[in-house]
Amino acid sequence: MKKGPLTIKDIAKDLNISTSTVSRALKDNPDISPETRKMVQDYAKKHKYKPNALALSLRTQRNNIIGVIVPELANHFFSGVLSGMETIAEDKDYHVIVCQSSEDYNREIRNVQTLIKARVCGVLISQSKTTTNYDHFQELLDNDIPVIFFDRICTGIDTDKVVVDDYSGTFTAVEYMIKTGCKRIAFFTAPMHLEISKNRKNGYLDALRKYHLPVDESLIRIADTKLLGYEKAKEILQEPNRPDGFMAMNDYTASGVLLAAKELKLKVPDEVSIFGFSNSNISQDTDPMLSTMDQRPMEVGKQAMELLLEKIENPENTSRKNKIIKTSLIVRQTTRSLPEEL
Amino acid sequence: MKKGPLTIKDIAKDLNISTSTVSRALKDNPDISPETRKMVQDYAKKHKYKPNALALSLRTQRNNIIGVIVPELANHFFSGVLSGMETIAEDKDYHVIVCQSSEDYNREIRNVQTLIKARVCGVLISQSKTTTNYDHFQELLDNDIPVIFFDRICTGIDTDKVVVDDYSGTFTAVEYMIKTGCKRIAFFTAPMHLEISKNRKNGYLDALRKYHLPVDESLIRIADTKLLGYEKAKEILQEPNRPDGFMAMNDYTASGVLLAAKELKLKVPDEVSIFGFSNSNISQDTDPMLSTMDQRPMEVGKQAMELLLEKIENPENTSRKNKIIKTSLIVRQTTRSLPEEL
DNA sequence: GTGAAAGCGCTAACAT
DNA sequence: ATGTTAGCGCTTTCAC
Hints:
The structure is a homodimer. Chain A has 12 helices and 12 strands. Chain A is an alpha/beta fold. In chain A, strand 8 (245-247), helix 11 (251-263) and strand 9 form a beta-alpha-beta unit. Chain A binds a DNA duplex through residues 7-9, 17-21, 23-24, 27, 31-33, 36, 51-52, 54-61. Chains A, B: InterPro entries: HTH_LacI (IPR000843), LacI/GalR-like_sensor (IPR046335), Lambda_DNA-bd_dom_sf (IPR010982), Peripla_BP_I (IPR028082), RNA_pol_sigma_54 (IPR000394). Chains A, B: Residues 6-60 form the HTH lacI-type domain.
């Protein structure tokens, strides 16, 4: 009676052959006679032999583990992204180790150390909001561990990235409102030092320009929470020349705008159109339900993982790749319908 | 110029000592002279030596990886649970590998195979809704891999479990409504064959009994979605002897009930109290915001992970442990305030 | 067609 | 106080 899991050695002893023969037979090596192969394979199946992944890793120096660092797991977007990553990884026989930075720079550093120690063969990162120094990311590269950033990308490190197309997402949403009759569209955004804000603003401005609508700076406000959305909308909607459309930073802000409009007895979407962003759960909970842009978290996750695995499996290819994930328009009830196409 | 990461061998060669001395010096073994120790440690730090976890695992037959199988990652409860697990694991230097079954029995089987192959040292499972056969779980135990179930426990396998206290959560919520003046409380539940429904119903009934309120079977309805909550509430609220309180299966159902009450111009909470369950995001998005029971996902995750690590580190202790995580009452705006305590 | 032996990185008996 | 050796499970030359 032996202890521990069955090894190649055990099989060899039991079958009176050498370990190398067993090893080869298991991989259907044609050098080995068909009879021996069959014998070994039958034995393995019968005794549920499972190769020791640890020993394998030690030899190949590859453990097929991918590390992922996200700011927060309990978040609709990130858990969706992780879900997408999982899907691809499972397909190609990789495992995913998750770490959360909890938006904390120091914890993020520890996450990186952990992953280096675990000798993962690649890392996917969406950086914490508090991270401003990138030495720890560089350390990954110094250890020859490929890194891909997604969503919250790090512009200070030269590597591949996967981002959501904020520019054209915003452009499309604003264009939709214009096509459905809006003439004065307000833009509620996050602080302008963020990359995301700049891209969204450009999308907004370009849509207005395309349709020759005037740009009114007073319609552009910093508001990225439900409360701020509510307050600023209430303010702006009581001015003489009130807007007839709102492009919000996210669904929470949009829900605040909606609240303000309802309180002012303005009809949504007839008098005021509202567009959210993210397609988070809340967008289906409001009444009327929010029109919004889906950021396709699954797709972000899948693409990032695919990019990484490609890089791992073709290390000689050093070209930079940036993927931009198109958002997808979700028209619900806070915007009007498109007029019939010609 | 050598390639690959620095090994003990490299250090030994460079310092003209043996690998065992290096190994010992790195662990501050007192057998080694302080000078040698310092020399080795300084060298290691300077050259950023990192022990090869793979080689270590091969020796110790332990890789400090924990597998987790959840039905769905993009879910408020499960991502919270995972978050809690992560916290504990990180503390004790374990890694977490996530798998999602996507509520699919066959995928769950594959998840289990994957984890066995990866030779994880323990597994945490919340089973898929479609799982009715437990052979794959048994296989984990046959491979000497400790298993803990959480939330969606498997009653067919003899192992430790961590569950949410549905009984007393419901009891507490119903009791709260009674204390704040409700006399006729409806109970909206999921299908009664589920463990969770039975436990909740018992909590509901016992609370009524404690305060000598009559049980009216017509107030107990199957409703576990927003739509069903809306429909059944609308129905029941228009009957002559309408209820003045609702205990819902989850926050979605509760939001449907709220919608119905608002449409019928009933004042919430003055004329109708409503309790949700889960403390999911939506509970803060409704107007008024829902009173609900928090299921403390973090706590579930932490406790499950602690139980597992204890089992891994003390394999000789074979006693069964079941943990019941108390829910916590969250009073928002769909219930009245408690009268002043005496 | 099969076996013996070396080696992946590290540790721990067992020398000296 | 330090070095030598064997071995964790597996693959892969190199022999025969």
